[in-house]
UniProtKB/TrEMBL annotation:
The chain crosses the membrane at residues 6-26, 33-53, 59-79. The keyword Transcription regulation does not apply. Residues 6-78 form the YetF-like N-terminal transmembrane domain. This is DUF421 domain-containing protein. PANTHER family: UPF0702 TRANSMEMBRANE PROTEIN YCAP, UPF0702 TRANSMEMBRANE PROTEIN YDFS. Residues 82-215 form the YetF C-terminal domain. Signal peptide: none annotated.
Length: 231
């Protein structure tokens, strides 16, 4: 078999299996990337790349390695759901770096974190003064979570005692020129009402509308297809 054809076949097989592993391991691999997850991801990618182009690696051996590195972390994640102690062993535990506006130097040293790096993490959260921070926690994925002191937190309707009307997210009623009747019915509107609203914004029919959505107050946003002019 020609070498290029063999590489093509091996690459397709490794790609499909890698995609399957990504689905099995779930979104946590990306959204909450710990150091352990980072190492696992790099290893899986390295195995897939070697299996694609290195003909010294038997495809069966490569597939077995991918399965082990893909399934074993998933098994560990399942065990972690049952045991908090096991979770701490695998992912570690969060560390408090700032408490009541005071930097905890011993915790900084444990995590090999310098003052410059701490300030960088604070600035990424929009905080420049350490004195404004009530608590800062270094999470297991390397992100810094901060709690500002009460006098530094933004005022919200809840804290100020001002009653506000509850809102829901905007709902799409028309997408790509097609009426979403289920969404329209869930909001309690009729097709006649919607047609009247889109006509106010230059559409003569639902087919003229690329996207239409309604907010909590009944305001309708309409985006017409290019070439459709508003009156």
């Amino acid at each position: 078999m020609p070498e290029l054809v063999l590489i093509l076949i091996r690459s397709i097989v490794s790609f499909l299996l890698l995609m399957l592993m990504a689905r099995l391991m779930g979104k946590k691999q990306i959204s909450q990337l710990t150091f352990f997850d980072y190492c696992v991801g790099i290893t899986i990618g390295s195995i897939a790349a070697s299996m694609s182009v290195d003909q010294n690696v038997k495809i069966v051996n490569g597939l077995m390695a991918l399965l082990i590195w893909g399934l074993f972390p998933s098994i560990l994640a399942f065990v972690s759901l049952k045991s908090r102690w096991f979770t701490k062993i695998i992912d570690g535990s969060p560390t408090i770096l700032i408490q009541r506006g005071k930097i905890l130097e011993h915790n900084m040293k444990k995590n090999l974190l310098s003052a410059d790096e701490l300030m960088l993490l604070l600035r990424e959260k929009g905080t420049f003064n350490v004195s404004d921070v009530e608590m800062a926690v270094l999470e297991t994925n390397g992100q810094l979570s901060i709690l500002l002191k009460s006098d530094q937190q933004p005022i919200t309707p809840h804290t100020s005692g001002v009653p506000v009307q509850m809102e829901h997210g905007p709902k799409i009623l028309i997408m790509d020129g097609k009426l979403l009747r289920k969404s329209l019915g869930e909001q309690g509107y009729t097709e006649e009402w919607l047609l009247g609203e889109i006509k106010k914004q230059g559409a003569s029919d639902v087919k003229d509308v690329f996207l239409a959505q309604v907010d909590s107050y009944g305001n309708v946003y309409v985006d017409l297809y290019e070439g459709t002019t508003k009156d």
